[in-house]
Amino acid sequence: MSGQVRCTLSTPVSWLIAGLTCLALTACHRQLEQHAQWLVFGTLVEVKLWGATAEEAETAFAGLQRRFQEMHEDLHAWEPGLLTEINKAFAQGQAARSNQQVNALLRRSQEYERLSVGRFNPAIGAVIEAWGFHTSEFPILAPPPERGRVESILMQSPSTLDIRIDGEYVESSNPAVQLDFGGIAKGYAVDLAIEFLNARGIEHAMVNAGGDLRAMGQRGGRSWRVAVRRPKGGIVGTVEVRDDEAFFTSGNYERFKQDGDQRFPHILDPRTGWAVEGLASVTVVSATGLHADAAATALVVAGPDDWPEVAGALGVESVLVIDEDGEIYLTPAMAERVQWVEQVHPKMVRTVP
């Protein structure tokens, strides 16, 4: 089987999984890297395995594709599915049937909303829709929404804390609550993939969702390494992944709305309903993708002054922040891990416990 490459084209699905699954199999024994790619959340997701046989890899990739498809059907915020049905019921003041996956995300979202004091809040789906961010096509060339429209939603204070989980059902005491898990879904997907692979005896893997990733084990006897990107191009350094960790970056430089010379990032402050300002990117290392994803989002919203306190509240120790002027700030725990690739002079910031 030496030198063989097999690629299969799957049926397109617009948001979660589309088009391309490839296995690069150069031999049928262990210790060679094998990979698959899918389009997930509008982002190319690549799964790399090391130390698995071709048969193990092919079975694992087929299983992951099924689970990503299930996520599409359950978690899409604007195409018909479980989440849109839940949102419709909330708007009508009715209970809706849920499932274990959605309930797990809801419970974690409620926890992160409390700890971040509202800086992370997936209940503002109506505000996100008002901005036109219910799309995978960026940039968006259009003006921002009228402030009155955004303010009319926020006056109703939508919050995940307004949601009650009762067995197979969920209900909201607030009809303004509309769920959008965009700030946590990639982390959930990365965790799902790693846990699925680990349960099948695969010990060495990386799941990379457009630069946001979780890795376990090693790559050919060496640790996986990931790059810290500079928002305006290039990288500032690399970080070694230790055993099993997630590495997530939230930033204002890839997905945005453009109105003339004004640019509005797709990350919104749930408290104001407006695009965030002050920080270009926040990189977080944590034990899980779910935690790293939510924390990175919350810290971007927190801004230059408050991110250390919010990081402490969320239990995040390894953080690297780049502000809109290109200045780099990082916590002592992250400073111990970054290998700089250029002359930089970061400013050390301790998180507030």
Structure description:
This protein has 353 residues and is an alpha+beta fold. It contains eight helices and 20 strands. It has helices at 54-75, 82-91, 100-115, 125-130, 147-154, 185-199, 289-313, 332-335; strands at residues 5-9, 20-24, 33-40, 43-50, 96-97, 140-141, 163-166, 169-172, 205-209, 212-216, 225-229, 235-240, 244-251, 256-259, 262-265, 279-286, 318-323, 328-330, 338-340, 347-348. The protein is globular.
Low-confidence residue ranges: 1-31
N-to-C CA distance: 55 Å
Compressed to H and E, one letter per element, the order equals EEEEHHEHHEHEEHEEEEEEEEHEEHEE
Number of helices: 8
Number of strands: 20
Q: Helix- and strand-based class?
A: alpha+beta
Oligomer classification: single chain
- Strand line-up in the sheet with most strands: 3-4-9-10-13-16-17-18-20
* Helix percent band: 25-40%
Q: Please state roughly what percent of the residues sit in beta strands, choosing from under 5%, 5-15%, 15-25%, 25-35%, 35-45% or over 45%.
A: 25-35%
Rounded to an integer in angstroms, the radius of gyration calculated over CA atoms is 20 Å
Apparent shape = globular
Query: Largest sheet, described in full?
Result: 9 strands, mixed
Mean pLDDT rating: 88
